[in-house]
Amino acid sequence: MGGDAMIVAGFGMNGRATDASLRAALEAALAGGPPPDALAALGDHAPRLAPLAAALALPLIRVPCVAGIATPTQSPRSLAAHGAGSVAEAVALAAAGPGAALTGHRAAARDGTATCAIARGPGDTERNPA
Asked: What is the pLDDT of residue 55?
């Protein structure tokens, strides 16, 4: 077995995001994968995510800034507002630590108010040889 890699669910959201839309984005991003060890959001978005973190009994990581973090998704609106192509992807990567990698594409709530991306920290150094 490898080390304990931290799995972080990072969120991006607008002001209309609800607890239900945040939960839906998380469930879509996990897609049956392992549950996260923590939730993460930009500092000013963290209070909106706090109820979900409490309901799931998970720590909430506040990421102060995502400007300059490279992400696979390149949203012009996100780039203009936050300096990163996807807030959810950038927050997940920043919170999971140096060397973290996304486990898949970001997922959005059906109402479009929240996105979620999952990142795995670098602790899992042993991979199954194929």
From this structure: 97
Element (H, E) at 4: none
What does each C-alpha distance from 6 to 48, 83, 118 come to in angstroms? Answer: 22, 25, 10
pLDDT digit string, tens, across residues 85-111? 999 999 999 999 999 999 988 999 999
Q: What 3-state class would DSSP assign to 120?
A: strand
The one-letter amino acid code at 76 reads P
Per-residue pLDDT tens for 72-84? 999 999 999 999 9
The mean pLDDT value of the chain amounts to 91
CB 87 within 8 A of CB 117: no
Contacts 24+ apart (CB under 8 A), 104-109: 104/29, 104/31, 104/33, 105/72, 105/73, 106/12, 106/29, 106/73, 107/25, 107/28, 107/29, 107/31, 108/25, 108/28, 109/17, 109/20, 109/21, 109/22, 109/24, 109/25, 109/28
